[in-house]
Amino acid sequence: MLDDEVVVITGVGPGLGSKLALRAAAQGAKVVMAARSTEVMTQAEKEVANAGGEAVGVSCDVRKPDDVARLVDTALDRFGTITGLVNSAFGHAGFTDLLDTPEKAIRRSLDITLFGALNVTRAVVPHMKAAGRGSIVNIGTMTTRKPSRGEGGYAVPKAAMATATQYLALELGSHGIRANHVIMGWLDGPSVRFYIKMKAENRGVPEQEIYDEVAGRIPLGRIPTDDACTGAVLFLLSRNASEITGATLDVNGGEYMP
């Protein structure tokens, strides 16, 4: 459970981010959501309130210091502290070979995925120190474990985040702050459903055939859902993971086994 925790979640969209916000609130956390678009966050606020929880959404581009400062100020004004952070905001550089991906697109991905995460982390850590505890969970991708052609511009910034996680764990541990890394595989949500639809249309086959091909590579025999995969993140945020820091947890149904 996450009672008494105040958790900031970046990159809240219709997939993993919104599911994390809803489930964190259901477990007792006060949730502060961040995204550039407010539509999904507004709906999540309503759902959390209807369930008796507390959540607030803040329009925030993690690349912009003023936006990040407003995000943190909102959390403090509303809930008084910050004890949890999930860095899930990312920028995708497009589905092209790495050397064919424009430098501008790769830099944008780095700015959001890595430097944006560091911006938010830098802003919340003083408040975690003041609280005497904190948990940072950075969201990674299986494409750093199992390269997939066309994903280089997305995977490279995520790989940098993996190393940053280890250094945060090393440097912040003495303050009672933990940092861990969750590597997601396929996530059966809006993005994957769009991919399945696109592939099915291109090949002239039913969408179920594409789903079955992907699921067939996963030992559990299914594509893990966004909602189901939130459990790993919530565990690392919770005090049940009090002795875990600097760790990497693979959440992919067994498709990749390190």
Characterization of this structure:
This protein is of the alpha/beta class and 258 residues long. The protein has two domains: 6-187 and 226-250, Rossmann fold; 188-223. It is built from eight helices and seven strands, in the order βαβαβαβαβαβαααβ. It has helices at residues 16-26, 39-50, 65-79, 103-131, 152-172, 190-203, 207-215, 226-237; strands at residues 6-10, 30-35, 54-59, 84-87, 134-141, 177-184, 248-251. The chain is globular and about 55 Å long. It starts with 5 loop residues before the first strand and ends in a 7-residue tail after the last strand.
Keywords:
2 domains; Rossmann fold; 258 residues; 8 helices; alpha/beta
Could you give a quick summary of the protein structure above?
With 258 residues, the protein is an alpha/beta fold. Helix content is 48%, strand content 16%.
CATH architecture of the largest domain: 3-Layer(aba) Sandwich
Radius of gyration: 18 Å
CATH topology of the largest domain: Rossmann fold
Secondary structure tally, helices? 8
Helix and strand sequence: EHEHEHEHEHEHHHE
Distance between the first and last residues' Cα: 28 Å
Unreliable segments of 5+ consecutive residues: none
Largest sheet: 7 strands, parallel
Beta-strand content estimate: 15-25%
CATH superfamily of the largest domain: NAD(P)-binding Rossmann-like Domain
Classification by helices and strands: alpha/beta
Within the largest sheet, what's the order of strands? 3-2-1-4-5-6-7
E-strand count: 7
- Assign a percent range to the helix content: 40-55%
